[in-house]
């Protein structure tokens, strides 16, 4: 018989108090990765007001800790440059815990819905080859078991594992391919925490405080319909699967989500921006937050996908964010593109350039809308990341311009001196321009490195 989650944690803490032993949250285990060159927090539970010691092998140092009368303890220890393996020993009156094979490196939290959760075993390109060659002992994997909670929790169910063909095949493929590239370039250990859940909307990953501050987001959330795979109850996945990590130092976050918010796409920039901001506030760290723009797909509704993609593009206004475009590696019949290699690689290249200051001569974005200028019956559209702007050999498609009434018409588009010129015989006085706006639109505008231009509207 399975215990209700609340009863499980009640029993967990009851056993801890009765034994009065030092107890650690599950994120601290053998094989873990700690964030390099930072003051990382170690924390847990023990007998109220108990004194015990913690030994860290990387600096051969011992610190004394005293638990509060709430049976909790927390202390910060400095970590060195990347390396390992190391050992941490917790030595108390009732018990001793020894954690071994600890690496110091870069830790990334990976979250979102099914495209982040999607593993090699779920079917990816070159599945057998990728699994067979996934022997990377300096990449460590932590998968968070799916749970919900009404209030923020202190612990999750999961354990660190060394990346191998046996462990990689059931882990997030996008996160793995990200780590493989970053580890190759940095030559340091990488720790990945996969806390994702298929079909989840952004609202379930967002703290309750956001909805208290922005009641319009509560109204927008009412447009999300229940599904058979995951709850849509606000904040419940944040409470159970994100909040327990807010004391655990990380380098940054990877995010692959948005498909489940096409029903309320117009509000996505706000909910997404506030979610990111709230996470950073909880960690007290403006860490990088890199995400994937959803791919074109037939949602059965004509424009929601385009609106959502544009909302994701607009979220780049938030500092220290990055977006990987995927419209060129999709199929509109499958919401789960099997090419997870390029998605992970594009996220890794953004991180390597923006966060790790490598690849400075490499373009990591597709063309992004910069400005639109109306010149007579023509619209001149400028892009950033536009070096070598080109089509795929055909005429440029999927541009539309609107008239004074707000009606949209297909436009002819051409390239001239690195800008796009668009006009329509049906529109004499253009007011706005948009590109690849339908849910299923797969554009054919790229820059010289072959990255696709993002959906946008100038409105």
TrEMBL record:
It holds the Pfam family SASA. Residues 106-350 form the Sialate O-acetylesterase domain. InterPro entries: SASA (IPR005181), SGNH_hydro_sf (IPR036514), SIAE (IPR039329). Transmembrane segments: none annotated. GO terms for biological process: carbohydrate metabolic process. GO terms for molecular function: sialate O-acetylesterase activity. Keywords: Hydrolase. Signal peptide: none annotated. PANTHER family: SIALATE O-ACETYLESTERASE. This is Sialate O-acetylesterase. It comes from Maribacter orientalis.
């Amino acid at each position: 018989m399975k215990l209700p989650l609340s009863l499980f944690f009640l029993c967990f803490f009851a056993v801890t108090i009765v034994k009065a032993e030092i107890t650690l949250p599950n994120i601290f285990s053998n094989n873990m990765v700690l964030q390099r060159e930072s003051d990382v927090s170690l924390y847990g539970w023990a007998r109220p007001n108990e004194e015990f010691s913690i030994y860290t092998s990387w600096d051969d140092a011992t610190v004394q800790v005293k638990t509060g009368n709430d049976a909790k303890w927390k202390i910060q220890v400095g970590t060195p440059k990347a390396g390992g393996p190391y050992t941490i020993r917790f030595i108390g009156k009732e018990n001793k815990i020894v954690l071994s094979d600890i690496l110091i490196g870069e830790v990334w939290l990976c979250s979102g819905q099914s495209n982040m959760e999607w593993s090699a075993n779920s079917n990816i390109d070159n599945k057998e080859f990728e699994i067979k060659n996934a022997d990377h002992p300096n990449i460590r994997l932590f998968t968070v078991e799916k749970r919900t909670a009404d209030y923020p929790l202190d612990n999750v169910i999961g354990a660190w594992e060394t990346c191998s063909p046996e462990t990689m095949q059931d882990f997030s493929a996008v996160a793995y391919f990200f780590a493989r590239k970053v580890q190759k370039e940095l030559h340091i250990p990488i720790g990945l925490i996969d806390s994702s859940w298929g079909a989840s909307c952004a609202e379930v990953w967002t703290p309750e405080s956001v909805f208290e501050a922005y009641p319009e987001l509560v109204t927008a959330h009412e447009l999300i319909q229940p599904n058979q795979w995951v709850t849509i109850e606000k904040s419940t996945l944040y409470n159970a699967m994100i909040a327990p990590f807010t004391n655990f130092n990380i380098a940054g976050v990877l995010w692959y989500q948005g498909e489940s918010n096409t029903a309320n796409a117009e509000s996505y920039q706000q909910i997404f921006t506030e979610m990111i901001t709230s996470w950073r506030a909880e960690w007290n760290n403006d860490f990088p937050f890199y995400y994937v723009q959803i791919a074109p797909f037939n949602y059965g509704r004509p424009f929601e996908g385009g609106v959502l993609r544009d909302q994701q593009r607009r979220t780049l206004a938030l500092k220290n964010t990055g977006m990987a475009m995927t419209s060129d590696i999709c199929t509109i019949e499958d919401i789960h593109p099997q090419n997870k290699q390029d998605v992970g690689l594009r996220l890794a290249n953004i991180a390597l350039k923006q966060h790790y200051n490598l690849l400075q001569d490499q373009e990591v974005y597709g063309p992004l809308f910069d400005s639109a200028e109306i010149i007579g019956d023509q619209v001149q559209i400028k892009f950033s990341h536009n070096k070598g702007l080109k089509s795929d050999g055909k005429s440029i498609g999927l541009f539309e311009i609107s008239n004074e009434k707000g009606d949209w018409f297909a436009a002819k588009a051409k390239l001239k001196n690195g800008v796009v010129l668009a006009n329509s015989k049906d529109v004499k006085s253009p007011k706005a321009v948009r590109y690849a706006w339908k849910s299923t639109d797969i554009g054919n505008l790229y820059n010289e490195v072959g990255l696709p231009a993002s959906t946008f509207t100038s409105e």
